[in-house]
Amino acid sequence: RTQAEMAHTCRGTINLSTAHIDTEDSCNIVLSNGGRTYHLKANSEVERQRWVTALELAKAKAIRMRNNQSDDSGDEEPASQSDKSELHGPLKTLSSKLEDLSTCNELIAKHGAALQRSLSELENLRLPADSGEKIKAVNERATLFRITSNAMINACRDFLDLAESHSRKWQRLLQHEREQRIRLEETIEQLAKQHNSLERACRGAPGLASGTASISSTAKGSVQSAKGEASDEDEETEYFDAMEDAPAFITVTADPKHHRRSGSNLSGASEGHPEDWNLEDSVFESSNQSSYNESTGKDLLPRKRRRSRIPDKPNYSLNLWSIMKNCIGKELSKIPMPVNFNEPLSMLQRLTEDLEYHELLDKAVKCESSTEQMCFVAAFSVSSYSTTVHRTAKPFNPLLGETYELDRLEELGFRSLCEQVSHHPPAAAHHVYSRRGWTLWQDITISSKFRGKYLSIMPLGAIHLEFHSSGNHYVWRKVTSTVHNIIVGKLWIDQSGEIEIVNHKSKDKCQLKFTPYSYFSRDVPRKVTGVVSDADGKAHYVMSGTWDEKMECSKIVHSSHGSTSTEGKQKTVYQTLSPKVLWRKYPLPENAENMYFFSELALTLNEPEERVAPTDSRLRPDQRLMESGRWDEANVEKQRLEEKQRAVRRRREAEAVEALEEGKDYEGYVPLWFERKVDAVTGELICVYKGGYWEAKDKQDWSVCPDIF
User: How high is the pLDDT of residue 567?
Assistant: First the structure.
């Protein structure tokens, strides 16, 4: 009882917290509290001891309750009292159980001593007549001991059950505190490095152009200029950020008119000629790119008019945490999700969106220099992330055997085909042929983990690009995408990691760095930097920009090695010509925020088309219902399709078991339009296009396609 309840109790009530419990003989119990005393009588000694044990436990609880109430009394606000009770409730309960164990332990010791005395008396007996009474007493003592032991065991069981029920919660809290501590340590370390770098910068740095300009770089790579007394080049000099965790470099934009005058003052590790950087003769063009709706090919037919909008996204509320709390640590592809978290496109269509800036590859075909061509390939690899900056919704997981075609051969010069070749793990094969002189293919497996606060999406697999005329074969891999604020706050996406693009014919390389967002960084958000170098490691171009807006390329005319930093990194200073924009993101369509932030190309990807395969994503009913705004029906249809796919998988598993019992080989699922081969470049087992799809489309012979919808 609480103190308030004790103040309004019935007449004759005894406060157990201050009561004294004693025994007179084998059946009587004495309860006393101040001037009030009660004499209780039990039917037997066993029953008396049960009452004594129960009263002792109740007294211990009353004492703890009184102490807790005195500790918690004060002028705290009700909200803080509630928070405190919620925080300390499990601890108090465990302490209570521990006190019960201590009380039982004392009783066991007490009865054990009495039992020992009884046994000693039994040993000293001489008269056989007394032996019966003594043996009876020993049996009663043993019974009491067993009862008390059972009480202790039950208390132990309650203690263990309660500890087990709270152990997972404690583990999560401990993990959270560890992550917070590690994050804080990293932040402090980062600030300390910045502080040390700023101190070194204040002491001076090696000069450029006869010592008229000095450059100091922080640990985060930001570069500032300290102007000299007299220099007409300082007014036109731009300084770009250096890459982190990569060979540190600094770029200085030089005016070609002053290049010959200032070039002799640079220790040239590599040299270029500014007259090669010609706007009219080079395939590098200005930032005034043609828009998506403009036709650039004279040999192509006029573009078909396609849809420019879809039904607005319904405003359905959904408790995200109620669904995601049971998904922590699991593969995202194995979690049943309602369409409320999706966008009305499949993963195959998202892969096809990489071709939105295909004209970069069309321009790369015209490059005579492999390093120039590498610049356009690098810009293309970055452009595939531009649509993700606002696209926080999840694409539909394709069904096994699902396909998607994008036939723009007559309009844009290319045709694309994707197929879902594996379901667990989810893998998609993609092949693109362009009559403008290039072929692209990839076999991508999506690995994703939900970590509670953020979602990591890790594309596994290489992307191959080959140019027909030159035979240049480029290979690169995608970086990790992270969706933040899964539980609380506004969702936002970040890209982080490095992309190494290798030309396996000429051995040219481009190392691109996607800088992760940091609250303490002074860098431009979503920043991408890199250097294009040849087979000998000589740098030719500097790439810079952001993955959501544009990429620029600067030709290197001189390079020199600066001082070695305290971290042991050799800084390279690149003097470059003015940067040129290779890629700039197309503006989003009007009302894009109500259409899932789709780009102009994305709006057309799910547009119904005739003559496509019956397995095409455009024909997927749940995706079509969602696009129409009928989300409840889409959820029902999605469950039906997933259950149908599970039934097919169970049938294949049964066939595999049957084949194993008969000693036969079971091949499993075989892709329709792709075949598995060992890639000669990477040595990996990938799915490559084996042909037959476009011929089947011309004949409208889809007899090999399974019924997946």
Answer: 55
Give the model's pLDDT for residue 223: 34
Instruction: Output the 3-class SS for 489-541.
Output: CCCEEEEEEEEEEEECCCCCEEEEEECCCCCCCCCCCCEEEEEEECCCCCEEE
Given phi > 0 = left and psi -120 to 50 = alpha, else beta, which region is 489? left
135-170 burial: b if 16+ Cβ within 10 Å, else e: eebeebbeebbebbeebbeebeeebeeeeeebeeee
Q: Model-level pTM? A: 0.62
User: Which of 27, 47, 64 is the C-terminal boundary of a domain?
Assistant: 64
Q: Token pair of 336, please? A: 């049943």
In the numeric block, which tokens belong to residue 56? 């002792």
- Phi, psi torsion values for 482, nearest 5 degrees: -130, 125
Where does a domain end: 64, 82, 101? 64
- Does residue 442 lie in a domain region? yes
**Domain coverage including residue 494:** 342-699
Distance CA 657, CA 144 (A): 60
Q: What is the pLDDT of residues 638-688, one digit of tens each?
A: 999 999 999 999 998 888 888 888 888 887 889 999 999 999 898 889 999
Q: Six-digit token pair at 89?
A: 């409730």
DSSP 645: H
For residue 146, give the 3-state DSSP assignment.
helix
For residue 458, being part of any structural domain is answered with yes
Please state, in angstroms and rounded to a whole number, the distance separating the CA atoms of residues 574 and 251: 5
Alpha carbons 403 and 692: distance in angstroms, whole number:
14
Distance between CA atoms of residues 570 and 537, nearest Å:
15
Q: Band of the pLDDT at 4, cuts 50, 70, 90?
A: very low
Q: How many structural domains are present in the chain?
A: 2
Give ∠ CA 393-397-400 in degrees, rounded to 5.
Answer: 170
Unique residue bearing structure tokens 């450059």:
215
The DSSP symbol for 101 reads: H
The owner of tokens 């994703």 is 448
> Rounded distance, CA 228 to CA 141, Å?
100
Q: What is the pLDDT of residues 480-534, one digit of tens each?
A: 999 988 777 788 999 999 999 999 999 999 999 999 988 777 888 999 999 999 9
Identity of the amino acid at 62: A
Q: Taking the CB of residue 508, how many other CB atoms lie within 10 A of it?
A: 23
Cβ neighbours of 388 (radius 10 Å): 19
Cβ-based burial of 61 (10 A; exposed 0-12, middle 13-18, buried ≥19): middle
Residue 533 domain-assigned (yes or no) = yes
Biggest alpha carbon–alpha carbon distance for the chain: 128
| Torsion over CA: 415, 550, 446, 320 (sign) | negative
What is the 3 state secondary structure string of 159-197? HHHHHHHHHHHHHHHHHHHHHHHHHHHHHHHHHHHHHHH
Is 685 domain-assigned? yes
Pairwise CA distance, residues 580 & 237, whole Å: 15
Tokens 């009862």 belong to residue: 147
Please state the φ and ψ torsions of residue 380, each to the nearest 5 degrees: -65, -40
Name 529's Cβ contacts closer than 8 Å, sequence gap at least 6.
240, 241, 242, 243, 512, 513, 515, 542, 543, 544
CATH number, domain with residue 444: 2.40.160.120
CA dihedral 398, 403, 404, 409 (to 10 degrees): 160
